[in-house]
Amino acid sequence: MYSGYNVVRVYNGKKKAINEFNNLNQGLFNSSRKSQFLSGLMQPIMAFIGNFSYLAVCVVRSDFS
Predict the structure, then answer these.
(1) Are residues 17 and 1 in contact, defined by beta-carbon separation less than 8 angstroms?
(2) CA 33, CA 54: separation in Å to the nearest integer?
(3) How far is CA 16 from CA 13, 24, 39, 40, in A?
């Protein structure tokens, strides 16, 4: 919209442009928030899987000893 600012002003499209920007901005905010949440979950999940696999190896190893 920045390059066509004069056209937007002449045809009274400021409110529509602001609404469209707000909708796009809200969508970006929601996706960013979900992405950060899932990213924050990955490290604990991977640590759990690593610890669980270590435990499984210990249990299996003790059965064969």
Answers:
(1) yes
(2) 33
(3) 5, 12, 34, 36
Nearest to 18 by CA among 8, 28, 27: 8
8 and 1 in contact (C-beta within 8 Å)?
Answer: yes
25's tokens: 């901005």
pLDDT digits (tens, 9 = 90+) for 4-52: 776 677 677 778 878 998 999 999 999 999 999 999 999 999 999 999 9
How many Å apart are CA 13 and CA 59, to the nearest integer?
Answer: 69
Domain ranges of the chain: 5-64
